[in-house]
Amino acid sequence: MSxxxxxxxxxxxxxxxRRVDLGTFGLVGPPVVWLVVFFVVPVIxxxxxxxxxxxxxxxxxxxxLDGWIDFLDGSAYLHLFWKSARMSLIVxxxxxxxAYPVAYFMALxxxxxxxxxLLMIIAPFFVSYFLRLLAMKxxxxxxxxxNSLAYWLGLRDPDDPIPALIYSQPAVIITLVFVYVPLVxxxxxxxxxxxxxxxxxxxxxxxxxxxxxxRAVTLPLSLPGVLAGFIFVxxxxxxxxxxxxxxxxxxxxxxxxxxxxxxxxxxxxQTGSVLSIFLxxxxxxxxxxxxxxxxxxxxxxxxxx
Amino acid sequence: xxxxISARGKWFLRAFFAFFVFFLxxxxxxxxxxxxxxxxxxxxxxxxxxxxxxxxxASNEVLKASVLTSIKVSSIASFAAVGLGLLAAIALVRxxxxxxxxxxxxxxxxxxxxxIVFAIALLILFSQIDRLPGIAFPLSIWTLVIGHxxxxxxxxxxxxxxxxxxxxxxxxxxxxxxxxGWVRTFRSITLPLIWPALxxxxxxxxxxxxxxxxxxxxxxxxxxxxxxxxxxxLRFPTLxxxxxxxxxxxxxVSMIVIVLTEIGRRVVERRLQIELDPAKYPxxxx
Lengths: 305, 286
Prior knowledge:
By secondary structure, chain A is an all-alpha fold.
């Protein structure tokens, strides 16, 4: 089959060879089929539920856009979506603000041990989403670490725990920042580490103060990393489920929780599917926008001339 | 003069960094502390040192069963994800094919789907399959494994692709020109070079799957994984110290696994690269 062996040993893209082996289809096929069957098809089925083609009781199935119209027409779920989106936005902004100086320190001020420091920051994220949630619940609870410390020191009365420390919107926001912030530091670190420091020297030589150099050089060049970090938090928290469940109470209830409720106790699979597909559509749209923004930032910071 | 930061700024950043690390680790250290506290609820004042919680864990059969279930799910899912991910990574790095961009987008798309949406969609899929006449497809650890493979796959691919890119394609071509088939080429060239990355992908996937709870709570059926067990115990405050003790053990083990993997991978890869091409990879270069 593959007799087109070229004898010229020029470094060329790996495309130049066609070898007799598994074949490209044999390589790409299994993972793609897996994702199509267990990822794309389920989403399509959820889409079918959202327009009534499929239904929980199959004899009630009939095409209808009612689920979508009800949802988009100022429903409580749509309000909940905006509330969740606002919470995600707050979490993402706080996470970026906290992670930026940390990444800056690791990338530009700690030349020797920076990978050790990076591993120290990143490792908790990979290790334990749920364990760290548990830790926050133990800390924020009415009988938890902070409150009991306050009782013990006589700062508060045991019948009067600090309000909104748990089961509230701020509790969800603090916990989400705690859970996701390591992930934001990573992309910011990467762009800052690749920053050409001669640009900073040039700026200083031309009389710019460090602050001016930061504003004119470092900050703009690091924006792609900031954007990536922002996405790493904003997108997953939009559909957050367990954090509100554990520390949110009624005030911290989020969009993801109502999706779960609609499929579980409420048995309203159609509305549940509408909410799911809507969330996916929003995320797809965001990814396109972020992609464009990323391209714009990369273009603007590319060396010209 | 340091152009990036002034001396005072550096001092400030160092303090901020220390605060940040404290923010990340303090809650976990508090968990450790309270796991040794001699009380039923984790609260101040501390009432004495005890290892009761750890001893109770050793005799809690349900808890141990849940850990075993999780180990089973995580190892099978990670193994499958690394296998599929390796195929995909080889194709992405070594081949050009039709609609490659679309395939990349598909392979990475599970990264951005909210787990709750994916969990529900999978649940619907399985219930629809189960509903087909003549097919029984109950929720079990296997349905959970299926879901975990989907969410682990992009992570595995992202770990393997950069490593594969650093393997000189000419090595594989030389083997091929010398008459080795693809199996032989893979076994004697690619595999020895990629195994540290495969191992680190497997371990990271394992740790990630071990901790996953959203999919587990929707598509695992009656199977109780370790995070699900922890979650169910939160309602019984008296069991909390014990739950915390196990959580601490798991956290410590996972942390050690991740850190050792990362260090080991760096050491092994550097050695392999130096052996292969001492000129291109001078000692000390990453």
